[in-house]
Amino acid sequence: MSELSNGGPIIIDETRTFKFSIVGIRIEGTANIKVYDNNGGCAGFHTDVFVKTNRGSGGKRVVLKGNETNTYPIMGPLSLEVTISKWQCTSTKLNFHIKGIVKGPFGIRETIINTDLSGDRFNHDLLNKELELLLHESEVASKA
Question: What is the model's pTM?
Answer without folding.
Answer: 0.78
